[in-house]
Amino acid sequence: MPFIIIRTLASLWLAHFLVDFMIGIWAIYKTMAHLDLFLAGLISGVGAFLGEGMQIFFGPMSDRGWRKQLICIGLIVTTASAWMAYTTNYWMLLIFFIATCLGSGAFHPSAVSLAGALTPHRKALMITIFASGGSIGLALSQLVFSHFYVFSNGHTGILIIPTLLLATVMLFYSLKGIQKFSPTHSAHEVNLKALFGLFKKRNLRLLYIAQVCNQTLFWATIFLLPDTLICKGYDSWICHGGGHLFLILGGAVMMIPSGYLADKYSPRFVLLVITLGAMVAFYTFLLFPILDTSHFILLIFILGAFLATVNPVIIAFGNLLAPESPGMVSAFLMGMAWCVSEGLGQSGGGLITRFFDNHAPVYALGILGIFFIVGIIATFLLPQTKKEKTDIPIVS
Q1: How far is residue 360's CA from residue 353's CA, in Å, rounded to a whole number?
Q2: Rounded to two decimals, what is the model's pTM?
Q3: pLDDT, tens digit (0-9, with 9 covering 90-100), for 172-222
Q4: Rg (CA), the chain
Q5: ∠ CA(133), CA(257), CA(369), 5° rounding?
Q6: 66 burial type by CB count under 10 A (0-12 exposed, 13-18 middle, 19+ buried)
Q7: Which fold has domain 3-176+190-380?
């Protein structure tokens, strides 16, 4: 593999690690600060809708030559999460979370389209390697933040230093993929009509539905997991980041193998297997009152391994369906899906907890599990194709 590919992929991997580390802070801080779950969920929903929804603009911009700028700016803006620990004011927390989501919205479609451009024949593998960086960052976020909060007496602003250093290096660093793109739209206009027109493509529409269902469950689980574990009576280290760590590590470990399998076999088959596996692990976790530590770690690791790997496989499949506009497709399957799913998962989960007095987070997750069924149906309707074929047609 050429050095330029390794160098670029390593930079993207580390940047993704830091971006998703910042994203993961909110879910544990709202528990540490004993915030109202409904209001915290509203902050999550509003922040995700406004911030991640901007990917519909950032994605096309990245296709028009703004990738490097969007990656670096997004990386810096996500550090807003590091300042949450200095306040419990809901309005200030909303501003910080919106800023974090805006940074995420700028970073993700630009970075994932560049990762997919590094090689024309192994898009899924490159994207899943890139995605594993985000997963590890997200996995460590709660445990590192909660311990650093205690260690630094709440001075968590120091956590922005690694991000600022990396962003400075990347600003003077050549981030180029091997594959050259030929934009089909005006370089002076964000073509929203073309972006929303992707809904007219049957396969992309089904991928979008499957993505919304998976990400609704994924973000609901992350958001409510600390409170769910507290309800079940697990040890403090598990509740304050340990459970989250093994959940996300499971996804990180399986991302690269899932990318390889999706390249080699039908992505439809891979998606069906991991979604069904996630559903079984999800309800096993919810229905068992409490497990010993070793069995809990194994179960939550398996849940993460299935639940978190759907996202990169869907994105890689979408990039293969429309290779001429990878940023736009990434924005469609990430930003447009995430702004809906994060709202449904976190705001919806927070709202459902209002209807229960005991074990409310557990019941909320159980009800949201209906999205597994919808996602499986959407995935089942996708065609059986092999990822190594680069000329997969889009069925209108």
Answers
A1: 5
A2: 0.79
A3: 765 654 344 334 444 444 567 777 888 888 888 999 999 999 999 999 999
A4: 20
A5: 80
A6: middle
A7: Growth Hormone; Chain: A; (1.20.1250)
